[in-house]
């Protein structure tokens, strides 16, 4: 069995679409990624903050599976890690198949609890025309499949680097499909 790995990490202090690749990021318990614009106990995503600034920040860390970048490349899009706004790009783990509340261990000590799916927005098409549609799919029942990664909150802080192992540390007893957050 191949070990799932972090392939890239990124952060940005400003609210931009993409994030800057880093050698490492520090996850801060209950807050998110140190130095990132989305760090905080309450929601930091600008459109969500306008609606309800006191809402809990369920989007402290954004994770994307590297296999999505491969799929996008096969469709003619050139997307590097961090360019879709993710903090952690991983390979070898089915992020989209995780249940709500699953805890991922990243590197030596960091742990994040998965809160839901990222909902792709129009900014993706501003980055590359047609990219948003390429990050969406339809399930056999016709329901929308969002493939732009998952959002999480930091349960245990720690440093995360490219090459670090990723594993599912715990899963809830009851499987609940990931909501959009």
UniProtKB/TrEMBL annotation:
<dbReference type="InterPro" id="IPR052716">
    <property type="entry name" value="MOSC_domain"/>
</dbReference>
<protein>
    <submittedName>
        <fullName>MOSC domain-containing protein</fullName>
    </submittedName>
</protein>
<dbReference type="InterPro" id="IPR005302">
    <property type="entry name" value="MoCF_Sase_C"/>
</dbReference>
<dbReference type="Pfam" id="PF03473">
    <property type="entry name" value="MOSC"/>
</dbReference>
<dbReference type="InterPro" id="IPR011037">
    <property type="entry name" value="Pyrv_Knase-like_insert_dom_sf"/>
</dbReference>
<feature type="domain" description="MOSC">
    <location>
        <begin position="20"/>
        <end position="169"/>
    </location>
</feature>
């Amino acid at each position: 069995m191949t070990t799932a790995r972090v392939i890239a990490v990124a952060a940005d202090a400003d609210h931009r679409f993409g994030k800057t690749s880093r050698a490492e990021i520090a996850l801060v318990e209950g807050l998110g990624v140190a130095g990132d614009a989305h760090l905080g106990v309450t929601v930091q995503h600008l459109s969500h903050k306008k609606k309800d600034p006191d809402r809990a920040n369920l989007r402290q860390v954004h994770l994307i599976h590297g296999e999505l970048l491969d799929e996008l490349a096969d469709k003619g899009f050139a997307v590097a890690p961090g360019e879709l706004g993710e903090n952690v790009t991983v390979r070898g783990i089915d992020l989209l198949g995780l249940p709500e509340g699953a805890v991922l261990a990243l590197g030596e000590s960091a742990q994040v609890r998965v809160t839901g799916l990222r909902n792709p927005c129009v900014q993706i098409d501003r980055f590359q025309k047609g990219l948003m549609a390429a990050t969406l799919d339809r399930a056999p029942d016709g329901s929308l499949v969002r493939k732009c990664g998952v959002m999480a909150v930091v349960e245990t802080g720690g440093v995360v680097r490219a090459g670090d192992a990723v594993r599912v540390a715990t899963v809830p007893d009851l499987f609940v499909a990931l909501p959009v957050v």
